[in-house]
Sequence to fold (207 residues):
Amino acid sequence: HMNSIQGGYIGMNKEDIIKEINNGEIKEVYWPERSDCCDVENESFENVILDNIECYRLTFKKCTFKNVQFIDNTVEWIEVEECTFEDCVFSGKIGDILLTVGNSSFERCQIKDFELDAVSEQLEVVDCKFDSCIFSDMKIEADLTLSGGSMTNCRGENVTGKMNMVWEVEFDKCIFENINMNTAVLRNSLKDVEFINVNQEGILHVK
Fold:
């Protein structure tokens, strides 16, 4: 991958991703075989905006994101594994997508003004750690499962919609306000968690 200098910092930016997507190389490991893919491993992104990216698949493995904004990207398949996100912002609207996020950490990140409408594919967030993150003004209609991992010092507000399941997540020192969700909540651990005007439909079982 090409490196770019951003304010003295050497890392990747949006242009590098676009070049990788447009390099014309057919990815035979995917079905269907596509050229509009980008696989990134052991790279760093800092102080960049990744917006309006259109492609078939993005894969990030063991990457670091610091102060990165993800806005209105159109990708059919995203895989994130063993990545670190610090002070990042996720916003915009995402349609049908195949999404897997595993063994990654999010610190002081914001998911805000965010709409997820993806009911035809499975989405999984597995064994991830969220610390001091804010989830606000979100609308979710997705076959989304959040399982394992933890949320510490996080806040959720003005979140509505429907998702599959919240399973075996450790919640500590969190506040959830104005939440209206239809989801199964199973075998989670709650410690010093405050609920304000929360309407949760579906199965509810606290470990």
